[in-house]
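Methods: holo model generation. Sequences were used as deposited, without trimming of termini or removal of tags, and paired with ligand SMILES retrieved from the corresponding compound records. Each pair was processed once, and we did not select among multiple samples. The sequence and adenosine-5'-triphosphate SMILES for this entry were:
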Amino acid sequence: MILIKNISKTYDGITNAVDNLSLTIQSGSVFGFLGPNGAGKTTAIKMLVGINTPDAGSIMIGDESPLAVSTRENIGFMPEEPHFYDQLTGLEFLEFSSDLFKNSRGKSKTELEEILKKVNIYEARHSKIRTYSKGMKQRLGFAQAIVNDPTYIFLDEPLEGLDPIGRREIKKIIETIKEEGKTIFFNSHILADVEALCDQIGIIHKGRLIYSGPVNQFRKDMSLEDQFVKTIKSL
Amino acid sequence: MKNTLVIAKSTFRQTIRDKILYGIVVFALIFLGSTVVLGSLSLGEEVFVIRNLGLAGIYIFGLIITIFLGATIVYDEVEKRTTYFLLSKPVSRADVVMGKFLGLLAAVSITTLLMLGAYLLTVVLSGGNFDYLSIGAVFLQIMEMAVLIAILILFSVFTTPLAATIYTILILYIGHLLPLIKQYALNSGLVAKYILTAVYYIFPNLEKFDIRNLIVHQIQVSFKESAISVGYAVIYVVLVVYLAQLLLNKKEL
Ligand SMILES: Nc1ncnc2c1ncn2[C@@H]1O[C@H](COP(=O)(O)OP(=O)(O)OP(=O)(O)O)[C@@H](O)[C@H]1O
Ligand SMILES: [Mg+2]
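and the model returned the structure below.
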């Protein structure tokens, strides 16, 4: 379970990027975190994976804070628009990522290649990341997020920049991972995909949570997108 | 600790494959080869001139490589947000700083040793003896580079690559003047004395690592003296890297 209690974050003491956010995400569920640009989604997810510390409030992943190194053994994170060490090859980067975890250190080349096959960049595994397209980088970003077989997976706009085939592939992997009982938290703008994948959603606007609960309860008789636009505009 | 090494390895790979680095190294090797020509212009002093220019060349090109690689290393990591990959994994900010330091030091050492190899070959081919004394000089040079890498990393935590480069060159300059500054302090008024003494202890005394002049004249440096220099480098590096880590800890990413 992921337990977020009253977390807040300001940048430079001015912007309330995240304002008193509380959420509970059940183990084994897929949670979609929605909000317009600048709403605070990335700020929130960075605190969830221990990159930044909240100014106030607390976060529990399982029974521990993400600031504890041991918690992060079981976390996978894909940043938005990821940048890599571009002189490394895809396989080298994945190996590097894998070696940073105690439980996946020394994974065999075949195991790593298996993951690259899953996200469909196996052919490019020996090419430098410098030569990868945006979508290929996105796939590699996804691959490194699952390399340690994490219990909790955080994805910041995982479907951004992918072609329709890529989107379908990644969605399929998310579904498989879900069936394995993992907990997935992801930020997204692509509401049709959110609708298809998520059990629960949270909607954030100007740092404040304006809804959290099942998708159906929020959208009522409209599509998620229409209801989302209507709600945000009415605020 | 393990993760520090994993980060060091990828940092080494990333930096050693830089095209601009290749350019600098090729240029350095051409320079070292060309000392033969310059040596032949000096009547009878061929090997002396080659050793003199060669060691100076290794130092200058070593500096260029160090600053070129060091000024951007942590800055890029933060600006391009590659740190997100690291810090969301079981990696501490201290691992990041130390890993970057070690990876960079390895890259600088390898390129410096490559230049040393070319230099030794040049000396032998020009009729000199195997210049084993120069190995000590280059080893101490690598210690100086280690200090500079630590300083570059510290600066690149909170400032731009250009500013980091300028500050480091300034420190380099002052660092080589320190023995003079100490002399000067002894003969100054009370306030000036305190200030200059403080400068003497805060800035790295880089003259400790320069034995090229002695080596060129075949003067050996005592083991004890060299060991003190190495110890000095280690302590300085540890303090600066620790400071860099404290600053990175405070930084909002
Ligand atoms: N490093 C930073 N320094 C200052 N302000 C920041 C910083 N990062 C984000 N902000 C501000 O915090 C707010 C929330 O930004 P955040 O990146 O979390 O939004 P987001 O919901 O992820 O947006 P998007 O959908 O565009 O990715 C914005 O107003 C943004 O300008
Ligand atoms: Mg974002």
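The first strand of chain A starts at residue 2 and ends at 11.
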